[in-house]
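[Meeting: bench + compute handoff]

Bench side (C.D.) handed over the final construct sequence. Compute side (W.E.) agreed to return the predicted structure before the next meeting so the bench team could plan truncations. Sequence as handed over:
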Amino acid sequence: MVEVEVTSPIIEMLNQYGFATVAAIAMGWFIYFIYTYVTQNIIEKLDKAQYTTILLIDRIRMLDNDLIRLRSKLDTILAMRENEEKDGISDNIKDNNMSLDRRRSSSNGEDGNTKE
């Protein structure tokens, strides 16, 4: 009987070129594989995430601007109420039950009729 030795191609390459050369080739293939995966898949997903992030930042800025506007309106209204309370006390509470719009000088007269 003749024994036939079966060796794998990897072992043959190791015997022919040496471990260092085969390891360098394997590492080069691995680096190429990772590079192509990153450039094809991950960068595309990062671009979508960056676009979504920009949209969210814009919405946050809009909400921040809305909050600033609302805060300034609220401060104005509170200041007007304080001034009206001070004026109402000094005027001996002349127009107690009138709304803010009726107390302001506008086209309405004291009786609520429009001027002509």
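W.E. noted at the follow-up: Residues 19-90 form the longest helix (72 residues). C.D. will use this when planning the next construct.
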